Amino acid sequence: MKILRPIVFVSVLLLCGWSAASAQDLKDYEERKSRIEKEIEMLDRQLSDNVSRSRSELSRLSLLRAKVEGRKAIIAESDRQIRRYSDEIYRTQRNINAMQARLDTLSDHYTTLVRNAYKNRDAKIWYMYILSSENLGQAFRRYNYFKNLSSQMRVQADKIRQAREDLEEQKTRLNGLKADAVKAQEKRKAELASLEKEEKAVSNTVSILKRNRTKYERELAAKKKQVQSLDREIKRLIQEAMKASDKESEETKQIDYKLAAEFSKNKGKLPWPASGAVVDRYGQHYHPVFTNVKLPFNNGISIAVQPGTEVKAVFDGVVKQIVVMPGYNQCVLVQHGNYFSFYCKLKTTSVKTGDKVVTGQKLGTVDTINGETQLHFQIWQGNKPQNPEQWLRSR
Description:
By secondary structure, the protein is α+β, with helices and mostly antiparallel strands. About 65% of the residues lie in helices and about 15% in strands. A hairpin with a 2-residue loop joins strand 10 and strand 11. The relative contact order is 0.11.
């Protein structure tokens, strides 16, 4: 029993500590799942708008694929949560086994005490046993034994009762974990069914695109011109801003250097300019259907958002320019030393050229263009475009 007691105690402590961590994991899981589910709902609305307005099937394909990506992320989160439940069930069962072993030991000890008490229930036998001692020390020990026997029995009975209560508590916990695990598995099954439907919708859209290659090649050519115009305008604006910075006073330049250094330190930590699903990523991509057709290089990302979503500055800076571009509506360029953040497809703007802005300050709201409510966002270091997702904090 002396060996079992610390083992059980340590097991309980470990389980309690793990349970606290597990509770935090569950909270994080629910938050991530909730965010992704909201993004999927928003994509559903945009898909409905896309259909009602008879817009581009390529845009529809982009939204559908973002939705499939979100659904897969939910399934991956469910898989991780199911594994956590499995691990916790295993740990709880081990703890129950250890507690049962301790309870068995306590019960055996208690049985021995009861048996001894029964054998010595006659007071005359107690006295004779004490009087037959070989010396005073032995008599004293025997006297204390009988004196403490009933007290030990009470203590042992209390220990057994507490051990049984703890054991039942852990068994209840185990049953709850198993029920939660079953629910998680059922939800995962439902998510897989939804994923199957969404992948079928992707396949159908791909088939439509293949039947209308000429039409979508014309759309792609028009889109390419818009992207090229935007890229040229951004480069021009940045060059102008950098030339203006060269003419600034030394004191102002030092401020810009400090701001740029702070911006650089926050790589991977910047807040998102708007909450939504990334439907178009940075870099060179090929057409999702006509795989030999190269799409225009994307210097930023497109984030699908709710209509009327506010766009916020990702860092302290100065508004250098507000321009209107075909296909992108209003665009705001914010300078952060030798770094720049660019926010496009805005319906309204809340700032003007020359305004100083702080992290999280509202710059405007996102517009709905051709059935798409999407923020186009870019980050530049000097005249070099950056992958925004490498600068924004992970979600």
